[in-house]
Design goal:
Elements lengths: L1 H14 L2 E9 L7 E3 L2 E2 L7 E3 L2 H6 L3 E3 L5 E4 L12 E3 L1 E4 L7 E9 L6 E8 L8 E6 L8 E5 L15 E2 L10 E4 L7 H6 L3 E8 L2 E8 L5 H4 L7 E2 L8 E4 L6 H4 L4 E8 L1 H4 L2 H8 L8 H6 L11 E11 L56 H19 L12
Parallel strand pairs: 4-7
Antiparallel strand pairs: 1-17, 1-20, 2-8, 3-4, 5-6, 6-20, 8-19, 9-15, 9-20, 10-11, 10-19, 11-12, 12-14, 13-14, 15-16, 16-18
The chain binds 2-acetamido-2-deoxy-beta-D-glucopyranose (5 copies).
The site of one 2-acetamido-2-deoxy-beta-D-glucopyranose (NAG) has 5 residues, from loops.
GO molecular function, one term: hydrolase activity, hydrolyzing O-glycosyl compounds
InterPro entries: Beta-glucanase-like, ConA-like_dom_sf, Glycosyl_Hydrlase_16
Keywords: Hydrolase, Signal
């Protein structure tokens, strides 16, 4: 009897951590199921045109390489004239992924370099009302990745949660969001590719939002051995890099609706290009000290030779299992409505055109983790966040933004 109970409990525990594949974006089919933006970066005011699929394919800014990996890149073959923009890519999944889902991305190279601002993130239909999760995001020569949630006012990240990253701002409703800076080495910049890349996993659950990162050498067997049809057992993954458990100061379901995944690369704009942020890292990279003039304008190579994503796959998973652990435990799964929509928004979103960019659905600039920036600097940025971004929005020319440091 006791043995039977114990076995039953064991089976139950094991099964609660299993996720089944929903969609595999990889190989020759990687770009099926994404929409290309097809307009300039009118969202973060970066100096790029995000090409439509036809152009991005023709210009080889979005393609599958000989290794079978997806490449998304900034144009490095063109000489850009002053006042023009450089070509790049931004793609968004047609599918929306609801609570109880898991998103895995296996990456070999992340864009980096002065002026470069890449992101892998998610958003609901309406921004910021429906929430934003930043999974991979950094700028310029930052050595580390940073993660963040962005919400409307009222959602706070709990202090002292079980995470290996460092919180750099707890208010998810301010301009910079509730940032968690990755502490592990080689999560961005040249070190990331040199270490063989790595894998990020994001669990979107009613109990919380959890992001794990592993460098290539540490990718768990459950992922390293998985193929495009495998189920994923997350029970042995340990402490996430960023943990956002539901807490009395943030009822997640109030702030997040089903999410689309986004991959993009912009240049300069209202994070990487802000003079007070760009200057300390890259101000000596060219004659003017200006992000746009010293990078975007002129020849594309060698400046943008490293401004590309190389991605082995993006896979999405879901589980139908009922929560077994207490809220806040990363391995618990949810009783949340399981409605992963195929190519159209779920109920919360049906009245809105899913393809329309509302103008602000962007990974928010998160100026809290400058390389070499002190904690005091970070705190100042967070406090200045709201008024700063309001100010920024009212100023047409990014270079006119006053120094904050
Ligand atoms: C893609 O962009 C080019 C250049 O702006 C335009 O000529 C073409 O019609 C667009 N194609 C589609 C399918 O929108
Ligand atoms: C994935 O792995 C499983 C178990 O090893 C195997 O049965 C299945 O055929 C594999 N699927 C693909 C698409 O390779
Ligand atoms: C959390 O938000 C959901 C969705 O808005 C709502 O139905 C629920 O009542 C809220 N729970 C609490 C404890 O506020
Ligand atoms: C552009 O960058 C790629 C690497 O991303 C490199 O192989 C290629 O040679 C560069 N193009 C030019 C024109 O230098
Ligand atoms: C950005 O451009 C898109 C596509 O033309 C448009 O739908 C959207 O309203 C624009 N957003 C802003 C903030 O200008």
């Amino acid at each position: 009897m006791q043995l039977a109970l114990a076995l039953g409990a064991l089976l139950f525990l094991e099964s609660t951590a299993a996720f089944d594949i929903l969609r595999d974006y990889s190989g020759q089919h990687f770009f099926e199921g994404w929409d290309f933006y097809g307009y300039w970066d009118n969202l973060t005011l970066g100096d790029v045109w995000w090409l439509n699929q036809t152009e991005a394919t023709t210009e080889r800014l979005a393609y599958i390489n000989d290794a079978g990996n997806a490449v998304l890149k900034v144009d490095n073959t063109t000489t850009v004239a002053s006042n023009d923009k450089r070509n790049s890519v931004r793609i968004t999944t047609q599918d929306f992924y609801d609570y109880s889902s898991l998103w895995i991305i296996d990456v070999l190279h992340i864009p980096y370099g002065c002026s470069v601002w890449p992101a892998f993130w998610s958003k609901g239909t309406l921004w910021p009302n429906d929430g934003e999760i930043d999974i991979i995001e950094s700028i310029n020569l930052n050595p580390n990745n940073q993660m963040a949630l962005h919400t409307t006012a009222g959602c706070m990240h709990a202090a002292n949660v079980a995470q290996t990253g460092r919180s750099a701002g707890l208010d998810c409703g301010v301009g910079s969001g509730c940032v968690v800076v990755e502490n592990q080495p080689n999560s961005y910049e040249s070190g990331f590719a040199a270490a063989g890349g790595g894998v990020w996993a994001t669990q979107f659950d009613v109990s919380g939002i959890y992001i794990w990162f592993w460098g290539r050498a540490n990718v768990p067997a459950s992922l390293a051995q998985a193929n495009s049809t495998s189920s994923i057992d997350i029970s042995s993954w340990g402490t996430p890099s960023a943990s956002y458990p539901v807490n009395p100061q943030c009822n997640l379901t109030q702030y997040f609706t089903p999410q689309q995944l986004v991959l993009d690369i912009t240049l300069c704009g209202d994070w990487a290009g802000v003079p007070s942020i760009y200057g300390p890292q890259c101000g000596s990279a060219g004659p003017t000290g200006d992000c746009y003039m010293d990078n975007v304008v002129g020849p594309g190579s060698p400046k943008y030779d490293n401004a590309y994503f190389e991605i082995s796959y993006v896979r999405t998973y879901t589980t139908t299992q009922v929560a077994a652990a207490a809220p806040g435990q990363p391995t618990s799964t949810s009783t949340g409505t399981l409605t992963v929509s195929q190519s159209e928004p779920t109920s919360q979103a049906q009245t809105t055109d899913s393809s329309s960019a509302d103008g602000s659905d962007e990974p928010n600039p998160s100026p809290t983790s400058l390389a070499g920036g002190s904690d005091e600097t970070s705190a100042a940025f967070v406090e200045a966040g709201v008024s700063f971004w309001v100010l920024l929005a009212s100023i047409a020319c990014v270079s006119a933004v006053p120094l904050l440091l």
